[in-house]
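User: Fold both of these, please.

Assistant: Here is the first one.
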Amino acid sequence: MKLYTRGGDKGMTSLIGGRVMKTDTKVEAYGTIDELNSFVGLAAAKAAAVEATQPLAEQLYDIMQELFDAGADLAYASPGHPYKLNEAAVSRLEQWIDEHTAAAPELSKFILPGGSELSAALHICRTVCRRAERRTVALLQQEEINQSVLAYLNRLSDYLFAAARAANVCLGVEDTQYIRSANVFKGKKQE
């Protein structure tokens, strides 16, 4: 099988059931999810390389499968097909967020991305996830989509933040506080 088809040489790409310009909102949405998945793969490889963070790597490998599902759900030319991603995946992310949040010190101020290399990689994932979410919202404004994809991306960015903090805890590295931050979380219950 050849990797090149020459089918996109004039700016078009194939969807499941049709063709569109490579700048189409749908392509932007699932393409950004694909970019996110690549960064999650990098973070998973870093987590797998250290025994203390191998459980985190397993979660990230599951997330990579679900991100592929999310991209596939957006890649259909027309609605009416069965979706792969569902609310169960969103609920599992919430459980993991709660576990990672409980493992990290309570927040009182904003933190900067980083600390450990793994945490920095997870923060990159978080910001790309937010962009994927924005691209998916733009697509939602144009057509019907699997609402679970949008909920999943919204929850995933929270997961990636919590996982970045938990990674620092596992690796014995403190979060770096934003020095000009007020006590923004004072009196607020973390969720």
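And the second sequence with its predicted structure:
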Amino acid sequence: MSVPTTPSRRSVLLGGAAALGLTALGSTQASASADKLTDPFTLGVASGDPYHDSVVLWTRLAQNPLADNGLGGMPDRAYFVEWEIATDEGFRRTVRRGVELARPQSAHSVHVEVEGLRPGSEYFYRFRTQGHISEAGRTRTAPAPGITRTDLTMCFASCSHFGAGHFTAYKRLAEDEPGLILHLGDYQYEYAAGANDVRQVLGPETRTLENYRLRHAQYKTDPDLQLAHATAPWLVVWDDHETENNWADEVPEQPDPNFLERRKNAFQAYYENMPLRRTARPRGIDMQLYRRLQWGGLINFHMLDTRQYRDDQACGDGVKPNCDARLEPTRSITGEEQERWLLDGLRRSRARWDVLGQQVFFSQIDLTPGVNQGYNMDAWDGYKANRDRIAEGLGKTRNGVVLTGDVHRHWAAETKSDYTDPTSRGLATEFVTTSITSGGDGNDDPNAGVLAENPHVKFHKNRRGYIRTKFTADELRADYRILPYVRQPGAEATTAASFVVADRDRSLHPA
């Protein structure tokens, strides 16, 4: 194989194994099977949950990723998978290496928790089995605890429906070369193929473990998604569509006596396909997904789970006027234990920025223009007391920020202590990212009626894309990135608006 001797960063991330050669992984060809595989790295590589001295590396073997049984065309046996992590793109300075066993019981997924790494450092990693080498991924560790004089470019995204369009936004996100990527839910959708789909979704509506494994595999075959995973470590949390639309704890959207089995299957497949630590391994119908990650002393990321513990949506779900049930003080979207954990973390925090990575609209938003008020019962407005307690907790931190997905629109909002008074005390700022594809191309409707009802909401855009942020000790900048279309591939990204939040200022300022 002819390879360049000094591959560039772009050649590593875009060119994969062809840019690397096979020398650095050593000569071991260990396998628990005598079966010779074709290329098993068709689903790419990923990393996630970076600590200051550790990171998770992920891959999943699948020589036929779209096999109906969801097992990627792999024989029913285990395979040894070698991994290595280096400080250079050419893998001449390897700092850690090892071997993991990819088992059929876990759909031949591999989760490696690499320890002993240097804080605030960039690394490159790859995998090998039976002479096949994966593409290379780039990752990084968080800065050392307490370090605030640093910066972080972080992009976040949500809502990527395979059938609704092309994943070009993931490619544009990767081209921004962020140091960290947050995915805030609806990474994949459970629905069967639709009549208006741009790309064919394989399989029926996902219910069985085989269904969910196949659906994740189809998404992972997308080259733009693979590129985004290979560019930076990810912090992931789910929303509803990774399991089923608008589910709430043990309550499905529609009556289903088999829902808990469906939930168990969805959780298992989600873990198998995400760069998560062992602490997130599912136990039946339960999965520990909410967690806290410190980016030095600059940011505390509090990653929330607003599905697994919530009360059923009030008043039959949807946008409802005059729903008094949403005001009940015991109603919760987080559950009591997660709320205590979050408020305790906010109270103890000494970080410059405390960031909630979560799923549904946090600030109050009246979605019914005119005299009547209508709130979304699936969002925090349906759990007002729970929201207000957490908002007060954010208001006591140095800088409280909420990052949100779900609604397939770009929004920017100020979380207020009293939404009837635009001059009331600000508690946090909220940045809501639009979808990667869900909702199709979108349009330029300014949504003037809703904006007029909600003076604390400062921006809206109905296009697809993501949000790019830059955190420093002095300010947070958020760029609302949009694409003109997703029903065809190749769209360029532009910035529709930018906002700056200064240190100790809980208001949005156009940049």
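Residues 1-33 have pLDDT under 50 and may be disordered.
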